[in-house]
Write a structure and sequence with these properties.
The chain is α+β, with helices and mostly antiparallel strands and about 130 residues long. It has one domain (about 5-130). The protein contains three helices and seven strands; from the N terminus they run αββββααβββ. It has helices spanning about 5-25, 75-80, 85-110; strands at about 30-35, 45-50, 65, 70-75, 110, 115-120, 125-130. The protein has a four-stranded mixed β-sheet with strand order 1-2-4-7. It has a three-stranded antiparallel β-sheet with strand order 3-6-5. A hairpin with a 4-residue loop joins strand 5 (about 110) and strand 6 (about 115-120). The radius of gyration is 15 Å and the shape is globular. The two termini are about 25 Å apart. The relative contact order is 0.20.
């Protein structure tokens, strides 16, 4: 299980780089925030959200009825592996692949980043890995 020191290191060293990459991919009108670990049951999360619920007449045609509100969490063992031998190279490959991963996750859970909408009020992509 991930200890507090490892969680803090993940938040300080790795999460800002994930935020930077995701922010670049999702463009304007979307917030990308780090939510720090609160307990082993509530790990570090990345929240990707839009500022308001979709309304008729918005600039974008919304595919789904709810505003974007997605949370990403990673598996503890995967985070621990990042901190070991070869972890940095693995993480760089992951960052390069995250655009394709976001595309795949959207289809799996009725989320549409382009229109900043989703089918459910909140979506969690949990237990993620760092495979490229």
């Amino acid at each position: 299980m991930l200890n507090r020191e490892q969680a803090l290191r993940f938040e300080a060293e790795f999460m800002p780089r994930i935020v930077e990459r995701v922010t670049h991919l999702v463009d304007h009108g979307v917030r990308v925030d780090i939510l720090p670990r609160e307990s082993p049951a509530l790990p570090t999360r990345l929240r990707i959200s839009a500022g308001h619920a979709p309304r008729q007449g918005d600039e974008h045609r919304h595919v789904y009825p709810f505003a974007l509100n997605v949370f990403l969490t990673w598996d503890d063992e995967e985070i621990e592996r990042l901190m070991g031998a070869g972890g940095e190279a693995r993480f760089v490959r992951y960052l390069d692949a995250i655009g394709a991963k976001l595309d795949a996750w959207q289809g799996a859970r009725d989320v549409d980043l382009a229109t900043r909408s989703q089918a459910e009020s909140s979506v969690l992509f949990g237990g993620l890995d760092f495979e490229a």
